Fold these 3 entries.
Entry 1:
Amino acid sequence: MRKPQPEHDLLSEIPSPSARLWLGLCVSLTIFVVFAVYTIHEIRWLEDFQVNVVQKNRKASLQLLRLQNNTYQLAVSLRDMTLPESRYPIFYWRGEFTRLRQDMDDALALEGQYAVTTPAGDEKRRQLRDVLDDFWMTADEAFTLADQGHEDTARYLIRSQLEEKREVISSIVSRLLTLNDQAQVEAGQRVNLVYGKVKKDILLLIGVLFLVALGTGLYTLQANRKTFERLHHLAEKLQAQSQQLSNLSWKLIEVQEETLRRVSRDLHDEFGQILTALGTMLSRAEQKGLEKDSIFVQEVQKVKRIVAETLESVRNSSQIFRPAILDDFGLEQTLEWFVRQFSRQTGIHVHFEQDLAEGFFPREDAIHIYRILQEALNNVARHSKAHEAWVVLRENGDELRLEIRDNGIGFELARDMERAPGDGIGLMGMRERAQHLNGEFSMQSTPGRGTVVNIRIPVDRNTLRPEKEKVG
């Protein structure tokens, strides 16, 4: 015969998608990391390109404009120097030429520092330096002739050579500006190409990640579908087993009640009758004694007292096991009687409050309420170290409420919910009985502040026995 499969084996058969999900996650993260590194690299290249090319190119253009402006100032000065009606001698412009020469040399040096290195640009800068050197040499020669008194020769030299060389300088500067503008345009185009490439790569990455996410999602959906099918099958098994355990638990409770009923009846009827008969026989033996103060009569009286005490104890025990008062006088008086017995036996003062409408609960329901109170107060006596407790039985509309509260030491509920075997019906038994009556069981406890047990049970008026059925 095949043995039933343990639950942990059933769980081990459920496939876990964790490994493949982790693989999909790692692939996605790897793509993200690679793309992040690539994007950072491209962005840094763009930053360097813009700093080293675009911005420097702009600075170089500013220096070329500076040279062009100085060239225009040279043109104005050369025009004024060559006019026949000029009021100033040629040496008057020496300071202006010296200032322009320094400014143009400085601008040319900065332009060479900022400009992008290209063969055409380098050639034009070399030509510009040569022409400027030749221009300043000719200018020095003109100023020397003027200083020697050869004003006309100096003006002729300016008109014939300096003006021509200035035009060459202006032409070279304009060409450099054109080359710089072309480099600026090419740099912008290159930046646009890089941005376009990054944009395409981002779109490609989005597509790849979408496919990866789609594949991972489809796999997860399929894996979860299979997993949930197995879990549903397992849940059905567990539910069936839970129902079987619940039925078994309730069957045990019924067997317990039946056993207690029989024990109570046997104690009350058989042992009670035997002890009553013994008491009667001892009374007769006492009356037939030869002497009232004889040792025999005294011993008979002692045995008679013991029999009477034992009979009282047996009757009390039979009432605890299955109180006959529950069948005769109903739930309210049974609970009140039990509270008095409990207070007398344990020394714990129990306050009992009740507010019930007339009518008896069915005995098969009332016994469970009695057992819940019995177990709750027994727990108070065993565990709480309380010296006072309160029991409130109240009917509120179509609901019966039972509250048992004590002023004991309390406990951590999560830790102490499970009791040791042999602790009476225990908390699980109380909950099982309350659920059997379609009720609710709850417990609150705080260390140092006592424990409260609440039971709420719906009341069906059609099942209540009328007052006239009370057994007197």
Entry 2:
Amino acid sequence: MCNSCLHPFATSTALENHIPFCLEHAPQQVRYPDPEDCKLKFTDVKKQQPVSFFLIADFESFLTPTNDDDDRPRTKIVNEHNVSGFCCHRVTQLEQYRTPPTIYSGDDVMSKFYEHVTNESRDIGKIMATNIHMEPLTPQQQSQYTRATVCNNCKQPFTRRNWKVRHHDHLTGKFLFPCCNDCNLQLKSTRTHRGSDQFFLPVIFHNLKNYDSHFIIKNFEKKYVEKHDKDHRINYEDIKVIPLNSEKFITFEIGNLRFLDSYQFLSTSLEELVSLLLKSGKENFVETIKYLGTTT
């Protein structure tokens, strides 16, 4: 065991290799949690509520033969995937802000994709910056608020430290439910950072980790995170990645765009998911029927 950091090693050789690096740092000690308070609890209650806006997207590609004449003993590349088009659809519960799906097929697909989601992000950011005051409560809503003794979101009782408030939709002004002050602060729209005029916008692909992310990362251009400081100097926002390995990413953020993989939550093919939903009726395909009709 290392006397500096108290980390155990299986062999003396491993300990000897560790000591020179360990001595570069101050001594440390492992502290275990209090047995009376050692349980992890879910606190990110905001994720229990639906987001106001998100984008659903998908790529289509075709195979292009390659001229790989290298005879070295390795994997031979026969075909290369090239993006031929994309579809992106804005999803929101607010009828006045809904738009038809955007479909593009042609040259320079990835530049068109980045241009589209950047414009969507800018438009949605302007909408999210809206702050409409709450409408007067109806008698039923006032009765609901008066009788409430626990928060409708976290289900914890109200206290003097965490008092009861009226949680409302800042985009419509409608009263939603009685809420504790802590949850009310968490449930407000999330900006990328303090003082920013940008909001996080989820962009959801199915099987992003294994396929679509390769197109997004490979064709990324810095101009989409380019910004200017007060001295008009150009700098770039960081790209944040949660990797599974060096080639597969669970999620990543480019500016205020947060790319997510729905396969992480519904781990089967789209064909299977559609067939399962179809068994309970075509009326469940709300967005599809709206734009493509009931015969699709």
Entry 3:
Amino acid sequence: MGNITGKVWGDTSVIIQNPLVELHKINIKAGYKCSEHKHVHKWNGFYVISGTLEIHVRKNNYELTDVTTLRAGDFTSVSPGEFHWFNCVDDCVALELYYPEPLSEDIVRKSVGGKTETKTPYKLIATLNYPDLSTFASVAAKATSPCCNVCDIDPMTNKCRGCDRTPEEIKAFGLSHMPEGYNK
């Protein structure tokens, strides 16, 4: 075992320490507690060998402090970023484990995936009326953004939510790129 370091609440000795994990044996005196603290990137686990140890955790997602009572053979862990401390009820011998936040927990999803719905721009273009050739030419000249195959006209703005163009701009762009013989 590594060096034994004295603490107000007892002592700790390093069993293993490397860039991925730290394991300490801790001896805690009854009636003592450690400081309230948090680890930014590490999980903090506790396994009790003998005695009784309370783990207090101030949860980030609600206004309560969770208290977990551990006896011989019990284990619990504290997430990174949560303030916590231990209280020793009976003289206690425990293993304290530190390990990094795993990369597998790195993703936060805002939605679920699935099949995409695409609309053919020609269906929308065919439903638009065009008054005359000069209007067509002026609208076609303004049509600078290409279609992204998401044709959904917002009734409030009269613009496509996919390409941010008016129906006239969509029609002008589509007609200017239609194959020979298209008569709409």
